[in-house]
Fold each of these.
Amino acid sequence: MAYVALADRDHEQHLHHPQSWITRWVFCQDHKVIAIQYSITAIAVGVVAMLLSSMFRMQLGFPDSFDLVTPDKYYQYVTMHGMIMVIYLLTALFLGGFGNYLIPLQLGARDMVFPFLNMLSYWVYLVSVLILMASFFIPGGPTGAGWTLYPPQAISAGTPGVNGGILLMLLSLAVFIVAFTMGGLNYVTTVLQARCRGMTFMRMPLSVWGIFVATVLGLLAFPALLVAAIMMLLDNLIGTSFFMPEMLTMGGQGEHNGGSPVLFQHLFWFFGHPEVYIVALPAFGMVSDVLSTHARKNIFGYRMMVWAIVAIGGLSFVVWAHHMYVSGMNPYFGFFFATTTLIIAVPTALKVYNWVLTLWRGDIQLTVPMLFAIGFIFTFTHGGLTGLFLGNVTVDLPLSDTYFVIGHFHMVMGVSPVLVLFAAIYHWYPKITGRMFSDTLGKWHFWCTLLGTYTVYLPMHYLGILGVPRRYWSYGSDFIPDSAQSLNSAITVAAIFVAASQLFFFINMIWSLRNGEKSGPNPWNATTLEWQTPNTPAVHGNWGDKLPEVHRWAYDYSVPGEARDFVPQTEPPHEGVVSGRDHGVEH
Amino acid sequence: MNVTLLFTALVGAILVLLLLVRQLRTKSWLEKGIITEDSFSTLAPKRVGLFVFLGVVTSLFLLFMIIYNERAEFPDWRPIADSRLLWFNTALLVIGSAALQLARNAAGHGRLSGIRINLTAAGVFTIAFLVGQIYAWNQLTAAGHFMATNPADAFFYLLTGLHGVHLLGGLFVWAKATTNAWQKPDPEDVSQAAGLHLSVQLCSVYWHYLLLLWLVLFYMFTST
C-alpha cells in the first residue's frame, strides 16, 4: 500500500502552463478563463432569450399588430425563452461561471483539481448551446412544446418543431448534462480536496457552500432529465412507447401504445424542482457574502445559514409533485407534497430573516452590489410568499396555468437570481478586471431593473387571479375583459423597458474595462481570500509562490478592538490569543 | 416502490453525511489560528472524483430501475424469454472484474508482471463481454424483438446499451493504464509506480461497481 499512500498524499498540483495565445485564451485550463468563457456564453444566450421574450410580449400586449409572431412562432419563442433562461443561462452562469471563478479563489487553491476536465466541460457546454441555437435555422424551427416538453404533445404532429426542433432540444439537453457532470465532479472534488491550510468547512464563505450543495443537487437531479430526454428521443426516433400512450391521429391508430405521459412529468419535475434550488442556493450564498461585506457586519447565524442550505437541498428532492397537482394524483400524495412544500419554507424563511438581521444596525454602504442584494431580499420574499399559495393543493387548482404562476416563478427564480447575478458581477468585477465600474450607470441599471420588473410581474398576479390563462397566443376580444388586455399592454411596455435598460449594464461593463478607475486588490475591504491575491486580476496559479493560510472565518467585520473594520481570513490572531477550537468566549 | 425508497435513501444518506461531518457543528466564529483536521484531504483527488462520479451513475441507473419496475407491472409487458447467453456474458464480466482485483493485489505487492498480465486479461474479458452483449442484441432482433416491439425489449436495449457505454468509458481509462503498465519502468521515478497503482486500484473499483450494476440489471431482466 506504500505506493497508494504516496499518490494520495501527492498534493502538489501540477499546473498546466499555457504556452501560446490559443492555450491561454481559447483552450485554456485556468479556472478563471473558463469562468469568463462560461459567463460570456451564458450571458450571450441569455440576451437571445430576453429578445425572444420581448417579441412574444409584443404579441401579447398588442395582438393583431405584428404579423411577425405567428401562433407557431409564439410557442417556439416561449419554449426557447424558458429553457434557455433556466438551464443555459442561470445554471451555466451560477455554476460554470461563478462556481469556476470563486471556488478555487475563495478556498485558496491554485486551480480546480481536474483542470483538463474543466476545460472540456466548457467546450461541451458550448456545443450544447450551438445545437440548441441550430434549431432556429432548421426547417420547422425550434420546438414549441413549452419548456416542460410534456409528451405526448411535444412529439405529436401539430406541435411546432416536431420534425427537428424537439430532437435538437433533447440532444442539446443531453450534451449539457454531460458538460455539467464534468464541471460538477470538479466543483465537488475541489471543495472536498483542495482547500488551503486552515480552511475548514465551517470557514468557507457561504458562496462556496451554496455552489457546493447546488452542485451535489445537480449531480443527483440532472440524471432524471437525462433519463427523460433519452427515453423521449427513443419514442420519437425509434418508435418505442415509454411516454407515448395509444392515440388516435387523423382517424387512425397511432404507432405508439401503452406509454405513460405522467411518468415523464415525474421525471421532469424530479429534476425540475431541485433545479430551482440549483439556481437558488448559489444565489443565497453569494447574496449573503455581498450583504455581509457591504453592511460591514458578520453574517447573522452563519452556522444556521449553512444548515439551511443543506436542509433546503435535501428537502428539494421530496417536493417535486407540487408541480403536478392538476395531473391527477392520489389525494394523500397531494397532501404529502403540499406538506413538504410548506416545510421547505422554514429553512428558506430562516435565511431571509438572517439576511435582514445582518443588515440590522449594520454600517450599510449603498453601493451598486448592495442595492441589488437588498432588491433581491424584496423580490425573493415576494416570490416566496406567492409560493405558499401555489404549494397548497386547493389554492393551486384554480390558479394553475394562469398568469399567477408566471408571476410567481419569475419573481422567485427569474428576477431574484438575476438580481443576485448582477450584485455578484458588480461585486467581483473589480477582482475580475482590476477596474471599478461606473457607479452612476450601475445605479440607473438597478433602479430601472427593479422597478421595471415589479411593473412587469406584480400585475401578472392580478391577471392570474382574474383567471387569464398562460400559453395563449391571443385572447380575442371576448375572452378576457378589456381592462385585463390594457394591463397586458402595460406589462409589455414595462418588459421592453426592462430589456432596454440592460444596456446600462452592458455599456458599463464594456466601457469600464478600459476607462474604469483602477480598483486595487480589495476595493470593498472584504475578508475572503479572493481579495487577498498578490495580483489583481489574479494571475495563473492565483497565489504566487506560497499558498495562503487561513486563520479565521470569513466574516470578521467590525470586530471590536481591531484597528480596521475588517480582518482578512489570512491574518493570524494577535499575540496572546490562544489558537484553536473552543477557546473563545460566546458573544 | 422499493427502488424509489432506495433512491430517497441515497439522497438522504449523502445529505445526512454532510450534516454529520463534525465540522458542521463547530463555532467557527470563535476559532482563531490554523486548524487542520480534514478527513478528506489525505485522499487523492482522483479517488474522490471517482466516488462522486459513481454517485451520479447510481442516481442515473436507480431512476431507470424505478421506471422499469413501475412499467413491468402493466399487463402488456413481455419479458425476455431466453437468457442463456446473458449467463455466459455475466461470467465473462465476473472474470474481468476478478482479473482486475488480481492486478490490484499484484500492485499492492509491487509485482509488475502480475499487474501487466491481469490488467490485460481484464480488458480482454471486458471486451468479450461487450461483444457478447452485441451478440445478445442480434439474437433478440433475429427473434423479432426490436426496440419498439415491447417495452421490455426497449428497456433491455436501452439499459444494456447504457451499461455498455459506461464500460467503454472504463476501457478508455484501462487502455491508458495498460499502456503505462507495459512501459519500461523507471526505477528512479517513484511517482510513476504510485500513479500506476492508483489507476489500477480505481479501475478495479469502477469494474466491481459496473459488475454489481450488471448483476442488478440482469436480475431485473430475468425476474420481471
Note: The CA atoms of residues 205 and 554 of chain A lie 6 Å apart.
Amino acid sequence: MGHGHHHHHHDEPPHDHAADLSVKDEELEPGELSRRSLMRRAGLLGAATVAASAGAAVAATGPAAASGPDHGREPRNGYLWLSGDHHIHTQYSGDAMYRVIDNVRHAAAFGLDWMVITDHGGPQHARIGVEKVNPDIVAARAEHKDVLVFQGLEWNIPGAEHATVFVHPGRREVEVLKEFENSYDGSVKGSGSGPADEALAVAGIAFLGQAVRNRRIPDALFLANHPARRGIDSPHEIRAWRDADPNVAIGFEGAPGHQAAGMPKPLGPGSGRGFYAGSPSGASFPGYPLESYRTFGGFDWMTATVGGLWDSLLAEGLPWTISANSDSHVVYGETATRGPGTNFEVNGFHDDPVYGQPTTLTAGDFWPGYYSRTTVGAEDFSYAAVMNALRAGRVWVDHGHLIAGLDVRLRETGSRRGVTLGGTLEVRKGRRVELVVEVDLATRPNWAQFVPKLARVDVIQGDVTGPAADRDVFTTPTTRVVKSFEVTANAGNKVTFVYPVGVVDRPMYLRVRGTDGNHSAVGLLGAPVDPAGPRMDVVGDADPWVDLWFYSNPVWVRPVG
Amino acid sequence: MNLIGLSTGRRDLPGAEHVLHELVALLGRPAVRLACTHFVGGFVELSLETAAAVPLPEGLSPGEAAVEAHRLGGGRAVLFDGAEELTGVLTVEALVGRSAIERVTVLAGADPGPEARVDTLGHLRPVRVGGTLTLATTPGLLTGGGHGLVPFELADQGTCCGGH
C-alpha cells in the first residue's frame, strides 16, 4: 500500500517553532515569525505555551495537544501509508555484518518506504562508526530515492534497555548524534542501574528536544526497543522518558525483532522468539511477572497484554506508539560471513561481508520488510512526514504481511467524518459514536510464499483516567476486548466492521488487533479482559509464519459541552 | 535450622553463583540444606541454610539483607535437598518426591498434573514463593523429542545475542 504514490521528498522542517519562545525571533523562518507575531497579538504566547513545549504540562494537554503539530489536517485523499523499520544494524555494529546498502536494497525489495540505521552506541561507534556510517547512508539515499533512509543509533539507555534514537537528515545530523552518544550512552558512560543513571537517561531525551528547539536538527525521535526482554525497563522509567519530552520520546517496540529466533533446532536457533529467553537479574524491576520475559504471538508482553503496561500508559490519556521492526543483524539462513581478518575493536566496523559457508542457522533475524512492518499515515513522502506520523500515532504494525491496509475511523454515528489512528474525536455529550474498521485483506503472497488469511479482528477499549498516581503501575482496570469480528472465508479483498461504541460520557480510547487465528489463549488478566489473545511463544519451537498478528495504535474520544 | 548470609559484591548471577559454590565447597555440601541468591539493591547476595551452626569463613562479608530476604520467604535456590537427583526428563511427581521442590507451576497456565513431564535441562533454579520452593516452567521441547515442560530459567539464554 502506498507504492506508486511516491513523489520526490523534500526536507521541510517538521517543527513549527512559532510558539516556542526558546527559539529567538531572528532564528525563525519568515512564516514562523509571522505566525508568532499573530499569536503575540492574540495573546496566545505566554508561560503556559512555554511549559507545554518543554513537556512540563503534558498531563493537562491530553492526546490531541501532544500528538504533534499536524494533528487534524488529514489530506483530502487520505494519508499516504508508508511501511518502515526503525531498528536495523550494519557492519558498524560489533555483532552485525551488513553494509548499509545491503539493508537498503533488501528493504526496498521487500516493500519498505522508510528505515532507520541504528548501530549500537558504544566506544567504537561514538569514536568512528557514527561518522563513518554517514557517507554510506547518504550514498544509499541517492541510490534508492524510493526509500527514506534515516540515520540514528541504538542507544544504551542509562540504567535500562536499548532504544532507537534518530534524527531528521540535515547538516548537523552526525554532529548531534555524536554529541548525544558521547554524553548520554550507557555503554560509553559506563552506566549501572541506579537513580543517577535514570536521571542521565531523562537528560539525554531532554538534550534531543533542546537540539530541535535550538534548530541544530529539524527533528528527533526516541522509541524504546525490546522493552520487556530483560525486565529492566521499569514502568516509572518509561513514564519518565515520555515526560522528559513527549515530542521526542513517543513509544516502544510492540514487537521485537529477531522473529526467527524461535525456529526449532537443528534448522533454527531454537531460542525464544525475539531472543526473549531470559529471566530476572539484579537490575530487573522486581514487580514484573515471569511471563513478561517471553513474547506472546511474537509481541512484547507490555503490548500483548490487554489491560497491561501499554494500556496503563494510554489510560493516562497520553499518546504512546508501538512499532514492529527487524533488528536485523544477521538473517536466518545467511550464506555470507564477515570478511576475513575483520577487526571491529580496532577499526570500528566489520570488513564487508563475503560469501562463505556454513549457512547460518543460529541467526534469528529477517531482512527489513521481510516479516515486520511499522506502517505510518504520512501527509507526504518525506522524512518530516514520517516523523510527524509516528509522533501523531498514525501507526499500525503487522507480521508476515498479515493485512494489506487498515483504515480505522471513529465518528459520530451517521457522520461521514471522524478521526483516524492517533486522532481525538470530540463529541457532544449524549451523541452516539461508532468505530469503523476497514481492512484491506492480503491478496498476494508474503515473503514466505503464502497469502496470509486474517481470521479475526478484535476491538479493545479502555477509559482514560488521567495521570497514574503510581508511576510503577502496569495494569489498568477498564481496558478489555469489547468486540470480536470473524472474517469469513469468502470475504473478498476488503472487510468492513462497525462497532457501535454508543453514547460517550467519559474520555476513552479504542484500538484494534487482528490475527490469523492459529494460536490463541486466554489473556494474562483473564477471559473477561481477553478471551482469545496471543499465546505465549514456546522457547525453541516458535515458527513465526504460523502465528501472525496486527495491532493498531489507539484512536481517542472525548466528550465536550 | 541455621541461616547465614553473604555479601558477594557481584551484580551478575553467574559471578554470585561462583562465590556460592566456593563457599559450599568450604563448608562441605552435606552441611548445606539450601543455598539461595537474592537481588538486593542491584547486587546478588547469598543465603545458606545449614544443618548445624557454622561460622562464616574468614574474609567473607556477612549479608544481613540476604538473611532478611530469606526470612521473608524469598530466594532463588541454586542448591537444595535432592538437587543432584534431578537429571534428565522427570515427572512432576518425581521432581517433588525426590527433592525439596514443593510445587511446579506453568507460566500463563494452570499447574501441571503429577504425570506431566519436565526436562530439567541440567539447570534447575526453583524460587521460594512465600517460603514454598516453586519451580516455574513453560511449555517446551523435551530432549529426545516431544512436547512437555522446561524450566522458565534457562542456563543458555542466548548470551551470544544478549547484546542485540
Note: Chain A touches chain B through 39 residues (CB under 8 Å).
